[in-house]
Specification:
CATH architecture of the largest domain: 3-Layer(aba) Sandwich
Radius of gyration: 21 Å
GO molecular function: ferrochelatase activity; metal ion binding
Helix content: 40-55%
Pfam family, one: Ferrochelatase
Oligomer: single chain
Largest sheet: 4 strands, parallel
Number of domains: 2
Subcellular location: Cytoplasm
CATH topology of the largest domain: Rossmann fold
EC number: 4.98.1.1
CATH class of the largest domain: Alpha Beta
Structural class: alpha/beta
Binding site for Fe(2+): 190, 269
Strand order of the largest sheet: 2-1-3-4
């Protein structure tokens, strides 16, 4: 079994911010003002842990797959040693930084992979997210002459394990509320340009996730908001989290719990947009804002990824180990 786990990617050192931002902008270098703004955001949060989290996800997913797949046809006759090489291999590729998706695809081809399943550490499909990951894989495969077949898990907004994992973390915040029945619960995901969201699929999937979590916990007041809109002149879907906090204060809410359902892992958009910017907005408005912790590489989220990968692998024709 071969798996390509993909994530957004993040710079590791200050000097990597400019080429990283240039890649996000499809090869167009950012202006000095935009570059300074992004560098300041990284400076404010310290450093994004996304690379470490994604690597941990890959290692733990591979271990989880190998714990459930048969290793040998006969029982062990002796100790297997400190680590058994199992039939599952998880490769890591990121969208905007090293190891790039193309680098991972090349490594898979060099290892003789013939079939693979891909999954992105993001549960909702849009033309600006999952579709772009798929395009990068397809382009890399075409450059190499299509050395292996590839199937992508495109979305999992209502996977029972995913809903349970998010619900458990929202539940951790409920006991901290002074009046849980009167609090507002906001579920956020990355905003995208309105022209890329005209089919409504992305918005519907994010709302589905929010609905399932709200239903599981019996939340009386909840809504969807958006964050991390790009710095472009075109309109992006909203309301922005800070605008929604303004409305929450006007509606008489005193406490708000925000859950970044579109971001399984902690990184810049979670730390800056929610813990810094939204928290400052809430303080200004006199709101008490609590943030639900992220899934990261926790066992319950790894189990979701494992289940999705196994299901996708089983659908491949004549699925092989290599």
């Amino acid at each position: 079994m071969n798996v390509l786990l993909m994530a957004y990617g993040t710079p590791y050192r200050p000097e990597e911010i400019e080429p990283y931002y240039t890649d996000i902008r499809r090869g167009r270098p950012p202006s000095p003002e935009l570059l300074d703004e992004l560098a300041e955001r990284y400076n404010l949060i310290g450093r994004s842990p996304l690379s470490e989290i994604t690597y941990a996800q890959a290692v733990r997913l591979e271990a989880a797959l190998n714990a459930t797949l048969p290793l040998y046809s006969k029982p062990f006759q002796s100790s297997p040693g400190p680590r058994v090489q199992g039939p599952a291999r998880v490769y890591l590729g990121t969208k905007h930084w090293h190891p790039f998706i193309a680098e991972a695809v090349q490594a898979m081809a060099q290892d003789g992979v013939r079939q693979a399943v891909g999954i992105v550490a993001a549960p909702h499909f849009s033309s600006r997210s999952i579709a772009e990951y798929r395009e990068k894989v397809e382009h890399a495969l075409a450059e190499l002459g299509h050395p292996f077949t590839f199937s992508l898990v495109e979305a999992y907004p209502d996977h029972p394990g995913y809903i349970q994992a998010v619900s458990g973390r929202v539940g951790e915040q409920i006991w901290r509320l002074r009046e849980p029945g009167r609090a507002l619960f906001l579920f956020t995901a990355h905003s995208i340009p309105e022209k890329s969201a005209q089919d409504g699929i992305y918005q519907a999937q994010v709302r589905t996730t929010a609905e399932r979590v709200a239903e599981s916990l019996g939340l009386a007041h909840w809504d969807v908001a958006w964050q991390s809109a790009g710095r472009t002149p075109e309109p992006w879907i909203g309301p922005d989290i800070n605008e929604r906090l303004e409305a929450a204060a006007a509606q008489g809410y005193g406490e708000v719990v925000v859950t970044a359902v579109g971001f399984p892992s902690d990184h810049l958009e979670v730390f800056y947009d929610l813990d810094y910017e939204a928290q400052n907005t809430a303080t200004r408005l006199g709101l008490r804002l609590l943030r639900t912790r992220s899934l990261n590489a926790d066992p319950d989220y790894i189990e979701v990824l494992r289940d999705l990968v196994l299901s996708a692998w089983a659908r491949l024709p004549q699925a092989q180990v290599v």
